[in-house]
């Protein structure tokens, strides 16, 4: 029987691998090149899987560059590369063709993020502004535990010209207000520019906010004054509907279970109490709180299954019409409604795009779940929102999906076919599938959780094994049913069942989180480690030739490389608001300038060194308003912190580090024998770490 093209390639790859590894001394260079060419030919037909990886690499390279190239440079480079690709295709030169194709994907990713940055570019709130009056329309209202957060589209802002206005600002009021989405309001607030990373290499909140069009954040002195009621637009109507649905669900169920159910239905996570968030996070169940591929898949999958089951009840419809495609179309429409109800966040958009690709494949008689469809979904997301590549949610969700599809495709080829399965193999398939799904998803996302959040849920597999069947088989289907029954007023009983299910999930989370060592803290990891881990995962999952085994080596090297970066000796917050000196004492690992000022940053420092100590138990030998103070603990000498220039010369003579919490003058650094840190000419300073090595000071700073 004739072999297919793919089978011939696999056989040649196996023979090539046997020659290379079994008899290395008898293989000449010509044969090695021939085998490599065969392997490359095997991968060439799967380039669609590598294209989004190369585009993502280009986006991350652009974001990680201090002075990234602009479109005026990238577009000509991309054009030349595409032309060279076309020429190599005409000349049938395989090597250059592959190289230019890969370069085109990388440059394409860089061009996408450069274009997106140009499109969202808008003024930021200047630093050091006094209290201002903001007038505009409310775009979003978030009722959180203890406060309310408003996102306002700015019409005017006192002290700024029209050309200097940011598009949106985010303002927190520590109380309740009656302003709704769409209302025109006036707010008296204190604003500042979007904050940068709390530590160098940490998550960049300013980048996230700027791509959302938010040019400043702060707090208000009073609730917003409503100047004019709005809510006539479609977006405002959707926001109002979300609030009403969340209120209804929370009112019927009550307690933290009601808040979690409201978050699952509308994406409003801000209502969930902190203790519930902490328990779910430490149990490895935090993914339940973000509208993502899991939720969208369950909603669309339940709708698809329900519609198809109802339609096949009719023999006439089944025999004469494509009921499977009708069910897929209904699932897509239901998913679109769920996307709108969830607030349309980018993680929900990503999830819907992936669901649309899967169910769209059914509409066009293609295989629904495959790595090619995942690649298409990733490309679509990167074209629309290229900045999403840098977000933990994007990386973790795609890592999990790619790993699961690759692993289950491998198992499917070796598992008994439908007619050959016994009751035992079916039971083993369900239980083993649940176990493998939790295990593989945890292994795939664990490195990213450790890198971005500095913690690992040690019993995440256990928590997911116990809780996910309840969520998958009971909570989400019942919640979808309740949403359909809500307009008829018949949802109360179903919502109570949802609350019972979520109560069980929350009790499982609290029990799991209470086990010894449930939340493992990880110090800040070196970026090279996560890059190598990502390369290893993608190599194993996406490639088919034997060189995919190199991915295992990459993963093995990623762990020691992640911990290769030596920890800093001193942490300095943005604008010198706080300072932390690493003491080496596990009970009090940091000596800080202030326990009250910039607590979020201090918590980020503790997370970066992998400490569980609370801020209130740290040593604070200085006070932020002191004219001068001295902090010990640094082996190289004293750290002296000055509020002004008085005593600068004496401090420079007797300390290893001098922190001047005011602007430095020309010549100050050269005239100081100690390491001098001071505000720049604009009164700004980025989050920075200092480390002494071999008599030199290694300074690492984040972007402002």
UniProtKB/TrEMBL annotation:
Membrane topology, record value: Multi-pass membrane protein
The organism's place on the tree of life at top rank: Bacteria
InterPro entries: ComEC_N, Competence_DNA_uptake, DUF4131
Compartments, as annotated in UniProt: Cell membrane
Domain ComEC/Rec2-related protein as annotated: residue spans: 264-545
Any one Gene Ontology cellular component term annotated for this protein: plasma membrane
A Pfam family matched in the record: DUF4131
Bilayer-crossing regions: 47-65, 71-89, 285-305, 326-341, 371-388, 394-411, 432-453, 465-485, 492-513, 525-543
Residue ranges of domain DUF4131 in the record: 68-223
UniProt KW Transmembrane keyword: yes
Keywords assigned by UniProt, alphabetized: Cell membrane, Membrane, Transmembrane, Transmembrane helix
Protein's name according to its UniProt entry: DUF4131 domain-containing protein
Organism: Parvularcula mediterranea
């Amino acid at each position: 029987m004739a072999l297919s093209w793919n089978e011939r390639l696999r056989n040649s790859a196996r023979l090539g691998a046997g020659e290379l590894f079994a008899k290395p001394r008898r293989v000449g260079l010509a044969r090695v090149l021939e085998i490599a060419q065969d392997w490359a030919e095997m991968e060439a037909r799967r380039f669609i899987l590598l294209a989004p990886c190369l585009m993502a690499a280009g986006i991350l390279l652009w974001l990680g560059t201090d002075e990234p190239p602009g479109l005026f440079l990238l577009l000509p480079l991309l054009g030349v590369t595409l032309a060279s690709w076309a020429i190599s295709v005409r000349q049938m030169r395989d090597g250059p063709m592959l190289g230019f194709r890969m370069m085109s994907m990388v440059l394409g990713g860089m061009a996408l993020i450069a274009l997106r940055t140009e499109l969202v570019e808008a003024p930021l709130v200047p630093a050091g502004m006094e209290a201002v009056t903001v007038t505009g329309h409310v775009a979003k209202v978030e009722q959180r535990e203890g406060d309310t957060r408003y996102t306002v589209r700015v019409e005017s802002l006192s002290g700024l010209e029209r050309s200097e206005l940011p598009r949106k600002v985010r303002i927190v009021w520590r109380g309740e207000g009656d302003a709704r989405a769409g209302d025109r309001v006036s707010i008296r607030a204190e604003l500042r520019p979007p904050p940068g990373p709390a530590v160098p290499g940490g998550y960049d909140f300013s980048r996230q906010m700027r791509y959302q069009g938010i040019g400043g954040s702060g707090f208000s002195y009073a609730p917003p004054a409503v100047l004019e009621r709005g809510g006539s637009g479609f977006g405002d109507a959707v926001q109002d509907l979300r609030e009403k649905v969340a209120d209804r669900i929370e009112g019927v169920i009550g307690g933290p279970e009601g808040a979690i159910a409201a978050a699952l239905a509308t994406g409003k996570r801000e209502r969930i109490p902190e203790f519930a968030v902490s328990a779910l996070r430490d149990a490895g169940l935090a993914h339940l709180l973000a509208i993502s591929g899991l939720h969208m898949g369950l909603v669309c999958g339940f709708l698809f299954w329900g519609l198809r089951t109802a339609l096949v009840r009719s023999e006439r419809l089944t025999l004469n019409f494509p009921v499977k495609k009708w069910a897929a179309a209904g699932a897509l429409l239901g998913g679109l409604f769920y996307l709108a109800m969830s607030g349309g966040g980018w993680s929900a958009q990503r999830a819907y795009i992936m669901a649309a690709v899967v169910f769209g494949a059914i509409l066009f008689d293609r295989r629904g779940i495959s790595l090619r469809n995942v690649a298409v979904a990733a490309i679509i997301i990167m074209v629309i929102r290229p900045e999403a590549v840098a977000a933990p949610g994007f990386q973790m969700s795609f890592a999990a999906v790619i790993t699961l599809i690759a692993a289950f495709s491998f198992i499917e080829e070796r598992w008994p076919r439908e007619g050959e399965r016994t009751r035992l193999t079916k039971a083993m398939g369900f239980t083993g599938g649940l176990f493998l799904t939790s295990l593989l998803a945890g292994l795939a996302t664990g490195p990213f959780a450790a890198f971005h959040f500095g913690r690992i849920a040690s019993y995440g597999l256990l928590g997911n094994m116990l809780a996910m069947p309840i969520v998958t088989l009971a909570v989400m289907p019942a919640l979808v049913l309740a949403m359909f029954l809500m307009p008829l007023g018949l949802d109360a009983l179903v919502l109570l069942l949802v609350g019972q299910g979520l109560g069980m999930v929350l009790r499982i989370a609290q029990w799991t989180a209470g086990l010894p060592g449930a939340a493992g803290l990880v110090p800040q990891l070196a970026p090279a480690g996560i890059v190598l881990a990502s390369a290893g995962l993608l190599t194993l999952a996406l490639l088919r030739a034997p060189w995919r085994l190199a991915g295992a080596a990459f993963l093995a090297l990623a762990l020691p490389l992640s911990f290769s970066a030596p920890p800093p000796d001193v942490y300095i917050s943005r604008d010198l608001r706080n300072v932390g000196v690493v003491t080496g004492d596990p009970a009090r690992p940091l000596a800080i300038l202030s326990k009250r000022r910039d607590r979020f940053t201090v918590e980020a420092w503790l997370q970066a060194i992998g400490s569980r100590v609370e801020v209130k138990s740290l040593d604070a030998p200085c006070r932020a308003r002191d004219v001068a103070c001295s902090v010990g603990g640094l082996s190289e000498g004293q750290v002296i912190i000055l509020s002004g220039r008085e005593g600068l010369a004496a401090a420079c003579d007797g300390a290893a580090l001098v922190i001047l919490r005011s602007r430095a003058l020309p010549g100050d650094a050269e005239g100081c024998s100690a390491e001098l840190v001071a505000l720049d000419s604009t009164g700004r300073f980025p989050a920075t770490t200092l480390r002494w090595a071999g008599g030199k000071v290694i300074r690492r700073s984040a972007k402002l």
